[in-house]
Structures
1.
Amino acid sequence: DTAVSQTPKYLVTQMGNDKSIKCEQNLGHDTMYWYKQDSKKFLKIMFSYNNKELIINETVPNRFSPKSPDKAHLNLHINSLELGDSAVYFCASSQGINRGGQPQHFGDGTRLSIL
Amino acid sequence: GNSVTQMEGPVTLSEEAFLTINCTYTATGYPSLFWYVQYPGEGLQLLLKATKADDKGSNKGFEATYRKETTSFHLEKGSVQVSDSAVYFCALSGSGGYQKVTFGIGTKLQVIP
């Protein structure tokens, strides 16, 4: 039933480690996104893929590397984790690259805490 | 570039009170406008949307009207419930080719019995 699912839901790890977050959508959408939400709830776009092609790449450290093996999956790998990476990371999907009125569907988020 | 200005919270209301959360935007062309709601521990979910001027979006008793003359999309509800306690985000997506969604800062609503 779940439309956009992310794993894991919680991720607690040490500074300097490398970790991955996975996202899958079963809505048949062709566009997927990663967002970062800070402690004040501010939402910032990080990346977007359309049909496995990177179309948005905001000013994000090189330690963050997205990967889309197919249009239903978008993963996020983070190298050398830093304290400032602590946040909630949301995956989202939508349909249509040139259709501005299409809403985005969000997963429940991955809460990343760096010790 | 596009921008969304949303009132800062938190907004605290008693149950059955009237709710207004202000949202104004800056964009070229004819953007689509959205309100998303985020309940504690969950992701954002679409509450309502409007894609052209004078359109009214509505859902679950919430309404917002796309006002191009005032570049606004204020969210209203006549009688809030405790279950409406959440963070509300105003957002827009531009027109003409691929445009990323621009979100406001979010307004936290707390409804007390």
2.
Amino acid sequence: AQSVTQLGSHVSVSEGALVLLRCNYSSSVPPYLFWYVQYPNQGLQLLLKYTSAATLVKGINDFEAEFKKSETSFHLTKPSAHMSDAAEYFCAVSLSGGSYIPTFGRGTSLIVHP
Amino acid sequence: NAGVTQTPKFQVLKTGQSMTLQCAQDMNHNSMYWYRQDPGMGLRLIYYSASEGTTDKGEVPNGYNVSRLNKREFSLRLESAAPSQTSVYFCASLSTGPGEQYFGPGTRLTVT
């Protein structure tokens, strides 16, 4: 079984500030982990993914996430927020060795203030 | 490549009406999925198809049926629409292994 918890349904930051979106997962086997972004009225698109290679994963638009097995976390960060980063962010987990049925978190809405 | 396409983009139905949401992908992916997205609920899996010729229920299959017409196309049917099915519906596809899913632009459905 697998599950994902995203802490905070809304996160508000100022432009130029650090972005931190939290994701904790539960998995009985080594997981694959993903962050997706959804801009208004669009589908989801991949930001980055962890598939058991390097624990620090870099994605598009200067986002990165670190897989921490001891903390069962995969938090998403960006050093400096931009107005265009305002969107909904989803963390997802799927299990290795089985059919790839990802489980999604409930999403975190990132609000960026000028 | 168009990626994943969905039709229609918007639809309004009356309670009890039926309709089919269409999804097609041109990436030669094996697996296809249907999700619904509701505020505060994230994405919930309705049905998926791991390969051509197979379909399986997801988390919220009641009131829906699917058809994997061929490798490219995966349709979702509402036989008798209910207001609880008002939602945004997304189709997605995935190649093999631990890859990412590719999502369509969504269908915004309102049932009155």
